[in-house]
Amino acid sequence: MSGNHRESNRQIVPFKAKVIEPIRLIPLDERLAVIERAGLNMFNIRAEDVYIDLLTDSGTGSISNAQLAGMMMGDESYAGSRSFHRLAETFQNLTGLPYVLPSHQGRGAEKVLNSVLVKKNRVVPGNSHFDTTKAHIEFAGGRCVDCTIKEGKSSQTMHPFKGNVDLEKLRATIDEFGPKNIAYVLITVTCNSGGGQPVSLENIHAVSELAHGKGVRVYFDAARFAENAYFIKEREAGYEKKTIPQIVREMFDCVDGCTMSSKKDAIVPMGGLVATRDQGLYEALKVPTILFEGFFTYGGMSGLMMEALAQGLEEVVQEDYLVHRISQSRMLGKWLNEVGVPIVEPVGGHAVFIDGRRFFPHVPEDQFPAQLLCVEMYKEGAVRPVEVGSNLIGRDPDNGDNIRPALDLCRLALPRRVYGKEHLEYVVDVADTVRKTEGSRRSGLMFDKELPGIRHFVSTFKYV
């Protein structure tokens, strides 16, 4: 090896395997039977019938030995457990948010917050609200207004922060409905529905200044806050020498609070939280926490899981971990690009998103091309992605019409610290084979049974 070889050119993996889980590729005839029984819905497939599971990065990561050790110290006291106080203090030190309420997962946190802040006809502007977020806001009687910048609605436009909020649209929304009718402004970091795209600190500061100047709260959906901080360090001028914890603290200094699914960046199988600066709101949030989740010092979480969550919050802001995490997504995106699979660029943090409409250019938009791609990837190689597009976004709550989102995406979400290079090479081969054999299809899918609510979880499909 050359003596001047730069170490920075190597991909450094900051962990090694200690415990493994066997996985099996079932034969083609079994896969075809499985997907038919599932009604062409990825959520209806049994996990043991999946070879590479990229359905979600939520709760699917590998815990560390330090997390496992911490779990042995879990205090299961009903009220005021030691594990809760460790979790609360860890999150307070990281974000500066003083009041913390645990929940069983992110949607529990959303239920708690929105049951207090959202009233009938109140509006929540933000950057591409995700499925459960939108559903909880609408369930509470509110409405979501997407204020993502136009670059975030194109899979091919290159922009370093495609998750940014369009300030002019946000200002117009607040002026149209009036500040008293804005429940809060929501910034999702990173923006999942837009392709896992980050939000710049410049934009976070500007949104905060605009909203607070009109007396409106600002909250994060902070499920992937550390990945967002890494992109800021890498892409935003003036932050390249800042540490990840310093960037995280500056991000949170701009907002009034957050909801968080801890199953993502905190790398735990279960858990979430709500945090706020407002003591009065904190007291109000205790009531739905007790009603929906559990006592406000455990909120549906066991002591052992709160210990694992506290440790995960410390591990996720380690830069070597984040470098590997983002590099793995980029590597998968690069390989897919090289074989001609159309993806959202630049690649986000937690997943690679394939553009379903460009993958199946002849399939009509109303026939769910991204959902079709998910089905064909399972049939070809027992790879399980998920659709983030026309199926997921659902219907307009006012008129019942199907909403046509700007992007119809097949998401390949990477569990944290789980799959290696060989697994991702296999995924690329499966996607490439589907492109070569099925890319000229001219018909897609239609609902067999469309169920109300968050339909993509439970509805079934048939081929047109």
Q: What would you note in describing this structure?
A:
The chain is α/β, with parallel strands linked by helices and 464 residues long. The chain folds into 2 domains: 13-50 and 318-463, Aspartate Aminotransferase, domain 1 (Alpha-Beta Complex); 65-315, Type I PLP-dependent aspartate aminotransferase-like (Major domain) (Aspartate Aminotransferase, domain 2). The protein has helices at 28-37, 65-71, 82-95, 106-117, 131-139, 167-177, 201-213, 225-235, 244-253, 279-293, 303-315, 319-338, 356-359, 369-381, 390-393, 421-438, and strands spanning 52-53, 99-103, 123-126, 143-146, 185-188, 218-221, 257-261, 272-276, 351-355, 383-384, 386-388, 409-413, 445-449, 460-463. Helix 2 runs antiparallel to helix 11 and helix 3 packs parallel to helix 11. The longest helix has 20 residues, at 319-338. The protein is globular and about 60 Å long. The chain starts with 27 loop residues before the first helix and ends with a strand. Mean pLDDT is 94; it is low at 1-7.
- Tally of DSSP β-strands: 14
CATH class category name of the largest domain: Alpha Beta
Oligomerization state: single chain
- Strand line-up across the major sheet: 2-8-7-6-5
Reported by name, the CATH topology of the largest domain is Aspartate Aminotransferase, domain 2
Provide the gyration radius in Å: 22 Å
Number of helices: 16
Q: How many domain regions? A: 2
Shape: globular
**Share of helix, binned:** 25-40%
Q: What low-confidence regions span 5 or more consecutive residues with pLDDT below 50?
A: 1-7
Structural class: alpha/beta
CATH superfamily of the largest domain: Type I PLP-dependent aspartate aminotransferase-like (Major domain)
